[in-house]
């Protein structure tokens, strides 16, 4: 029996309405920018499997790092113990993170990194005897699917049934070229009328919202004002981290650095679930006390898993290798050329790029999980290109190792799709 048939008996997939969804495709192998299904069909992984596998699938250096590590130390709990991969990863991260980040807290996925950041922010104020109960977040942000992360997320297609049970969040529009005064005014009102603990944001690019960009200057102004009001700023770089926006981190393009950062996805290059909540010395120090309860009593069993740490160390070595740096530049340039080429197409409302992210909004109304969106998805898959349109936004965020020919095929397939709309 085919994998996709056996799957049907017992498996419940994420983000799936099983009554109407097509059967999933059984994937049996992945290498570089390619995926193969059980029937032998080949697909270009145009979004690097949710922007994780940025150095390509099954990269030999990553495979080596993980297998070597598992033979030495598979796992040990991380309370009361430490190990070389975790210590080394913290050292490697210090070399590339913004200079104000000093402490690394380990979790096991993106949502839990955000969850930990939100709890740290709330407890930071609590430890200072200051009860603050409100979070500030951007409209249409996405921060994950656990309750704290979901509260911060503003995409209603995910949160509907849970809205009555969420944390208190005030939302700001993202700062664009023409609305900064208005956004700062709303921030001012928010700060006056509420007791704000933290501001959480996806810096420069909102992924799940449809790869929507905003202005670095505007974000800087918001962070500055929040920090003046002792509102901790949490940069959720789970999507943007590790080179997506052109710099190692999107925050590298800001003047004002966040108090905390959340990392996952490309952190381990897609090899292993692991995430990080980093923070400044000041945040860390606010948990120091003779009183044990002022510590951060939060743990995930698989925190700092040695295999994930080993993958992350190998991934960071690749991130700034000459070959990957060259590819990062090359993809960014190719995206720009393709964007210029199709900008005036009648079916395109807007096309934009930042770093290795290319996104185009179609001039066609589509529901986020509607039929037309599904047809478009099928159209790409049938031509061997794995892209997941977000409503009427098609985006490409390829592994850095994608070849010129593969990237061209992605562009050609998009053009072909435009012609059918
Ligand atoms: C994917 C993502 C998350 C959630 O991470 P999970 O590992 O899926 O829980 C949070 N924030 C952003 C910006 C993301 O892209």
Question: What does this protein look like?
Answer:
This protein has 421 residues and is an alpha/beta fold. It has a domain of 258 residues: Type I PLP-dependent aspartate aminotransferase-like (Major domain) (Aspartate Aminotransferase, domain 2), CATH 3.40.640. The protein is built from 14 helices and 16 strands. The chain has a seven-stranded mixed beta sheet, sandwiched between helices. A four-stranded mixed beta sheet has the order 1-2-3-15. Strands 13-14-16 form a three-stranded antiparallel beta sheet, with helices on one face. Strand 2 and strand 3 form a beta hairpin. Helix 3 runs antiparallel to helix 11, helix 4 packs parallel to helix 11 and helix 8 runs parallel beside helix 9. The chain starts with a helix and ends with a helix. The model has no long low-confidence stretch (mean pLDDT 96). Pyridoxal-5'-phosphate binds next to helix 5.
Which molecules are bound in this entry? pyridoxal-5'-phosphate
CATH architectural arrangement of the domain at 62-319: 3-Layer(aba) Sandwich
Strand order, sheet with most strands: 4-12-11-10-7-5-6
Secondary structure tally, helices: 14
The class by helix and strand makeup works out as: alpha/beta
Q: Which percent range fits the helix content? A: 25-40%
Query: Assembly state here?
Result: single chain
Q: Which whole number gives the mean pLDDT? A: 96
CATH topology of the domain at 62-319: Aspartate Aminotransferase, domain 2
Radius of gyration over all CA atoms, rounded: 21 Å
Give the termini separation: 36 Å
Shape: globular
Strand residue content: 15-25%
Largest sheet: 7 strands, mixed
pLDDT < 50 stretches: none
